């Protein structure tokens, strides 16, 4: 029988049953490899989603290899490159990177620095607060109230975090919004001192009485 099979099929003496078994085993092995590959892909996607969305909101829909996910500084750099000029200014002000902030200001003429001003105050960077204040000063009468509200917000953020150096600048004679707008402004910053007291910053909270006296005097 083997010799007849060999002559009929061009000299191939392989058992047909063995060939079928070999093909079946190969199919099973390929299916197992595919399942393993799919499982690895699922794990990578889950790791990517949890890692990127946890810290970098701009990367939450981006999928990276595990090797990149392990390099947090690389993800941080990619996240920075995706920032808008306004977002970059906020980040530079928040982290006290004056050189980076100046580069952003000089490169993007229409960059909105109002939120960056508040972030700098909340982070205690008095030098950046002083530098950005010139962009907060109103040039038109209808801009005064918005500027006052922004400075009051910066004062509240600084007081809440206990940044006395920022408070001293924002309440100094260099910031003349208080004299030009009067009682509304002074009343607007009283909650900042209350917040300082609630957070244990008694050196700042001690100025609350002085500010209340000023608000009543105007």
Automatic annotation (TrEMBL):
The Basic and acidic residues compositionally biased stretches are 9-26
Q: Where is this region: Disordered?
A: 1-33
Gene3D superfamilies recorded? Ankyrin repeat-containing domain
Taxonomy, superkingdom: Eukaryota
Q: Which PANTHER family match?
A: ANKYRIN REPEAT-CONTAINING PROTEIN (PTHR46586)
Name by which UniProt lists this protein? Uncharacterized protein
Q: Which organism is it from?
A: Phytophthora nicotianae P1569
């Amino acid at each position: 029988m083997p010799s007849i099979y060999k002559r009929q099929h061009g000299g191939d003496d392989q058992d047909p049953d063995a060939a079928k078994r070999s093909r079946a085993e190969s199919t099973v092995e390929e299916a197992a490899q595919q399942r393993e590959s799919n499982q690895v892909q699922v794990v990578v996607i889950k790791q990517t989603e949890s890692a990127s969305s946890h810290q970098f909101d701009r990367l939450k829909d981006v999928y990276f290899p595990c090797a990149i996910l392990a390099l947090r500084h690389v993800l941080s750099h990619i996240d920075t490159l995706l920032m808008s000029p306004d977002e970059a200014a906020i980040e530079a002000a928040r982290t006290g990177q004056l050189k980076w902030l100046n580069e952003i200001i000089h490169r993007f003429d229409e960059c909105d620095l109002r939120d960056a001003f508040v972030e700098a105050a909340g982070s205690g960077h008095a030098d950046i607060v002083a530098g950005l204040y010139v962009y907060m000063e109103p040039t038109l009468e209808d801009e005064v109230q918005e500027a006052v509200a922004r400075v009051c917000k910066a004062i509240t953020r600084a007081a809440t975090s206990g940044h006395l150096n920022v408070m001293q600048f924002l309440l100094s004679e260099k910031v003349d919004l208080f004299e030009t707008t009067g009682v509304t402004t002074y009343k607007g910053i009283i909650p900042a001192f209350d917040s300082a007291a609630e957070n244990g910053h008694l050196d700042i909270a001690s100025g609350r009485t002085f500010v209340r006296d000023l608000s009543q005097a105007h």
